[in-house]
Amino acid sequence: MSHLEIKPYLLQSIKAAIEEMITQDNQTLSTFVMTDELRHDILNILVTYGDKIPHPAGGDHSQTLIRWQILAYVAGIDLTIAKWFESHVDALSILHELGYRESTQGLWAIWAAEGHPVPIRYQQGKISGTKSWCSGANIVDHGLITYRDESGQSQLLVVSMQQEGIEIDNGEWHAVGMQATDTATIHFNQATASNVGAANAYLERVGFWHGAAGVAACWYGATTSIAGYLIKAYQQKPHDYKAMYLGQISISLSVTQQYFHHVAHLIDSQPTRSHELAIRQLRANVEQLARDVVEAVGQALGAAPFCRNAHFAKLSADLPVFIRQSHGAFDLQRIGELSSILATDLNNDSINEQENIWQL
Predict the structure, then answer these.
(1) Which residues make beta-bridge pairs with 146?
(2) In terms of DSSP H, where are the helices of 48-194?
(3) Most buried among 76, 131, 320, 355, using CB within 10 Å?
(4) b vs e for 129-145, b when ≥16 Cβ sit within 10 Å of the residue's Cβ?
C-alpha cells in the first residue's frame, strides 16, 4: 500500500470503527456521553490499529502527519483515550527506534517522570522503587519505565504489569480534568524487568522530540473539537459577536495547522535530526492556542455548553490539565537558547545569505 493510500485507509477506518461503536451505544456523535465502558471499548479498537500507525520519521512522505492526524482525531473524541493511545503508540515507536525485537502485543505505556524520593533501582533483572505519574496504570499490559543507574545515566526498562511485586496506588490522583486517566503511583518490589537500549539512548534518540510533537497533536485535536462548537452555534444562529470570536480563533487555528504540516515535513525529509527547536515552538504555540480557544469559545457561547453538553464540558475540563504536560517558562527559556544558537550558526555561515533566523 502506497503512502497516498495509508491516510484514507487508516483514518477513515478508525473513524468508521469509533462512530459505529458510539451509535451502537445508542448515542449520536453530536450529543454522546463518554462512559467508562465506551471509553475502554474505543481504546481496545484503537489498539488493534497500533502496529499500523506510521512511526514518526518513517522515511516516507507524509508519514508523520498521518500519525498526528489520527492522534488529533482521537483527542477530539476524548482526551483520556488520547492520553492512553498516544502513550501506547509512542512506546511502540520507542521500541522500534531502539531495535526491540520481542513481541509488542497488548497495551503499552511510557512512564518517564522522575524525581520520586524512592527512585527506581534495577539489579539482576529485578526492579524496585516507585514511579509517579503513571497514566493507565491498572489497564496496561506492559510499561516502558525510565530510571537512573548508579552512574546517573538514563536507562529504559520493559516491565510486564501482570506479575507479583507491583502495587498500584491511585490515592494521590485528585484531578477533575483528566480524572479518568487512571494515573497512579506504582511501587515495585523485586518485579521482573528487562533493559532496552544503551545508556541514555531513550533521551538522546531523535525520536524523543518527534514523540513530543505527537502530544501537541492531541492538544490541537481537542482544541479544534471545542472550536467546532462555535462554528455550529454560528451556523444555527448567526450573530456578529459569534462571527468575531470565530474569526479570531480561525486565524490562530489555521496558522498552527500549517505549522504542523511544516514540522511534519521537516521530520520526514530530515529524519535523522531531532528538530527540537521547531517542536518546542510548536508545543508552545499549541498550548497558547488551546487556552485562547477555550476562553474565546466560552465568551462567545456563554455557560450553556459547559453545563449542558457532556462532550464539550469534558474536553474543556481535560484540556487545561493536559497542556500542563508542557513545561511553561522552562520551555520558553530553552526556545530562546536554541534560537540564539541558530542565529549564531547562521551568522558564522559565510555561504548562507540569510541575515537573521526570522528573515523571509
Answers:
(1) 156
(2) 63-77, 79-97
(3) 131
(4) bbbbbbbbbeebebbbb
